[in-house]
Design brief:
Chains A, B: One of its GO terms (molecular function) is ATP binding. The structure is a homodimer. By secondary structure, chain A is of the alpha/beta class. Helices cover 30% and strands 23% of the residues of chain A. A six-stranded mixed β-sheet of chain A has the order 1-2-4-3-5-6, sandwiched between helices. Chain A has a six-stranded mixed β-sheet with strand order 9-8-7-12-10-11. In chain A, helix 2 (83-93) packs across helix 3, helix 4 runs antiparallel to helix 5 and helix 6 crosses helix 7.
Chain lengths: 333, 333
Amino acid sequence: MKKFINNPENFVDEMLEGIYLAHPEVTHVGEDLHCYVRTTPVKGKVAIVTGGGSGHLPLFLGYVGDNMLDGAGVGGVFQSPSSEQVLEVTRYVDQGAGVLYLYGNYSGDLMNFDMAGELADLEGIETATVVGRDDVASSVVGEEHKRRGVAGIVFLYKVAGAAASAMKPLAEVVRLTEKASARTRTIGVALSPCIVPEVGKPSFEIGADEMEIGMGIHGEPGITRKKLTPADALVDEMMERVLAEQSYDTEKDVAVLINGLGATPLEELYVIYRRTAQVLEKAGANIRHVFIGEYATSMEMAGASISVLQLDDELEPLIAVGANTPFFKHIAR
Amino acid sequence: MKKFINNPENFVDEMLEGIYLAHPEVTHVGEDLHCYVRTTPVKGKVAIVTGGGSGHLPLFLGYVGDNMLDGAGVGGVFQSPSSEQVLEVTRYVDQGAGVLYLYGNYSGDLMNFDMAGELADLEGIETATVVGRDDVASSVVGEEHKRRGVAGIVFLYKVAGAAASAMKPLAEVVRLTEKASARTRTIGVALSPCIVPEVGKPSFEIGADEMEIGMGIHGEPGITRKKLTPADALVDEMMERVLAEQSYDTEKDVAVLINGLGATPLEELYVIYRRTAQVLEKAGANIRHVFIGEYATSMEMAGASISVLQLDDELEPLIAVGANTPFFKHIAR
């Protein structure tokens, strides 16, 4: 296991210590480093809390900041934060306008956020929940509620964060975020596994010339495993899955996110974007916003995902709003 | 070779096509995709041109943008741009105040930039040159002029870009950039090789439990190869090289850049930063600016580097200035 770590058991805490040392804009609630919040809460604003396992930086905590999120519960590598941790964050970030829980559709996270929400309710803090479920490979049409949340959640963070910063009430932030969620589709491909430090060996095996389309960000099984094809053919095959669920006849505007899973060079993400843009243009779409880089990783996994959010007149301006976190800076044009 | 590419010969051009499709703020001069410039030149400002081989994104072209650079000559993977390409960029970006060539200390780049400068001179365009030579592992004290330029050049871009944007004359931009160069030290470590697409095999071999301290970003030999140590011990050893050349007795302020070489997860960079901050604090330094992420890569190489710029009252405000390129966004606090 070739990693820059000390004792694997301390990996997440030492990473968090590094983050707090580097970025005074964020801090932890009390003694627990896993309860991650921004230091500048906004009075009367709907607060937004995310969370999930470590090992996906800049997901999840990286989106806590101006015009984005207010706090995150941070679990161990690929582990959910506890309900107590989510509750601690909830108490800290609540500014009287309620709290939106916004995270990916995984059973451990659902359980712990739901429990935290119930406990917060007893304390008079209103909460609501929207889960990201953008991974088209993880369940068929008609069963979208079963889909996993992957990189497309960044669009949801953007929309929810901008809506909350515009001081919209909780119900309206929820409505807009749900709309963005219903219009976001992601398809991924993995070329190599990652290594969870405490496990110490690769999360799965894959042949030296193979790829797996649709693999999840924790190595969950995908749709098809086969020989690696040229990039353009691969993008065409991936985008078929997206185009099967989106049509740009009447609503043409889209936001696109090309996400690297960890080890894939930025150069290759631009090769992927090139073909994605060609495919979308041919399908009649008009690309309004582009994000290319590492937004939701699986540590050193090689691979990439393509996310497309179909915009409307309500969502486009929310994606366009500037944002500023230690890990994500979006400057409005 | 597991890469998202089509024909390896088209890799750089297709990457560049992707970049131009994604980012309307930049374009190419004439037909040559390798002559990369921003679309909004600033009248009367000193123009800054960088360049070098592809395969290091966001280096080099990623720093072309507001308050940073004006153009870049882009070579093939790990290959210098030609003198003609640099000259084309020079002609395009010159706004009558002269052009600073700012790039890493590699013989191919030196030759081609020097030739371009001579040709520009014949056309009445004044040029000056500063080269990054921050890699302490590449030559001993007393022979700093032989050192290679690596991730620390980002500090030089920041300083030069801010100085030029403040409409300082060429000689003053050169003086400040030279000062930043003289005060920047970088030490790197590699855990794995990368694969140049047109070569198709790893650039070097390294044992499954080995690291090489001081390796260059093209796989140039380092100082020592040995068994991978825990992160803290490794940082201590690396920082010894930096501390041997910097003392914080009178000038305490520093900027720190923890750079990932490609495949190393962001989580590990924060573990490295944690220890780096501890070491610097113990040495009496005061960390004023922190940059952590991928700033100068070697495609999918696993590894990291630590850069420290010792600031003074002139340099600190230049590092603090905001910047906005498609690949690098710095929001002034």
